[in-house]
């Protein structure tokens, strides 16, 4: 046994597992155990353990804690992703509902505008008909006034002719009788 390398021997200590591989967030950690070399035959029956740094002893309890934390973080991320997906779904539902309602409002507005424009067009047509009817009535009245004026002119001309004829007859009578009228002129009467 002279060729064996010096090893550090601890009394009554169980084998300590080696540190775990690098931390992976998506998968739980698996702890690999190294095989323990067979104990050295000594009279005291001591176990032989390879020298490991002190940090390995401190990490052993933390490995399960780190795994639990990683699993909790994974579960938390999963919940957050479901919440985010739900939120996006709700937002899209709200947007779709809003778009549908806006389309309904626009359709209602267009329908109301069309009704108003149709009513305005009908009123304009009615006004145009009334305007044409009133214009026709005014033309008829104008024609009646013109006809009445022509009749009055004809009466005035006829009366003038009658008055002239009457004056000529009176003058002829006065000439025949030699009687001088008392009123020479109607405006200078005396």
From TrEMBL:
Comp. bias regions, Basic and acidic residues: 1-11, 22-35, 51-64
Coiled coil: 113-140
Location of region: Disordered: 1-64
Keyword Coiled coil applies: yes
Domain (Remorin C-terminal) ranges: 78-183
InterPro entries, alphabetized: Remorin_C (IPR005516), Remorin_N (IPR005518)
Signal peptide: none
Top-level division of the source organism's lineage: Eukaryota
Domain Remorin N-terminal: 10-74
Keywords of this entry: Coiled coil
Entry similarity comment: Belongs to the remorin family.
Record-given protein name: Remorin C-terminal domain-containing protein
